Amino acid sequence: MLHYKKYQLVEPGAPWVVFVHGAGGSSSIWFLQIKEFIRHFNVLLVDLRGHGRSKSIAAGKDLRNYNFEDITLDILEVLDSLKIEKAHFVGVSLGTILIRNISELAPQRVSSMVMSGAIIRLNVRAKVLVALGNMFKRVVPYMWLYSFFAWIIMPRERHRKSRLLFVNEAKKVAQKEFMRWFRLTYELTPMLKFFEEKDTGIPTLYLMGDEDHMFLPAVEHIITRHTNSFLQVIGDSGHVCNVDQPEEFNVRAIRFLEEISGRGAVVSFPLKRSSVSLAAC
């Protein structure tokens, strides 16, 4: 089973929030969120297979070749072991794809979704990067590839902290594991197309940096098509806005989750699509 860490409140019935990191990262990417979130929720952090402290998982699983469904089921296995029937999910980058997949495989387990640096569609630049990566992955050191991708996605000086955090975490991922994860890129286009076409209706807040040039335009489009989907753009922030602007991220995400849970005061939550209170959703 995946390595996980949980923070459980004394208060009975407090809702759970599950944090899902992106490819090459680990649960440590959420270190700027934990202190604030555990004041309001039970918190569960997972390390995806091959990442962080999930270097080995239960026998009987195919550790050589796996797909997005296998990785998604890993997360649900942790929830089952802890008897968490339903939770809010917070993800960043590729972690948002896994959360979206959970909403397909087990929609009854998802109270709401907070998608940070959400990957909704691959634009031309992203498709070129993926193609180049697949072309050179066996001849170029994988850390060169990862560092190059990190710089393309997070190019500005103020993204440096996020960029270095992801690169340093990626160094802990074995090269064979990196190759297995990179093979998943072949699944991305059809999966994202399906996700874009199908509306789950689950309350979803997209928290995006205003400088997330590769992925923000697609999110701006999808919220006009999906019900109960909302966008807030965080200024002076790139792809990993929970690190670039953690205070803004925490305030906005917690307020959304508390309103969805019915735990916070009913307030008007300014959103991209409308100014309707989330309590009405």
TrEMBL record:
GO terms for molecular function: hydrolase activity. Residues 17-250 form the AB hydrolase-1 domain. Signal peptide: none annotated. Keywords: Hydrolase. It comes from the Bacteria. InterPro entries: AB_hydrolase_1 (IPR000073), AB_hydrolase_fold (IPR029058), AB_hydrolase_sf (IPR050266), Epox_hydrolase-like (IPR000639). GO terms for cellular component: membrane. This is Alpha/beta fold hydrolase.
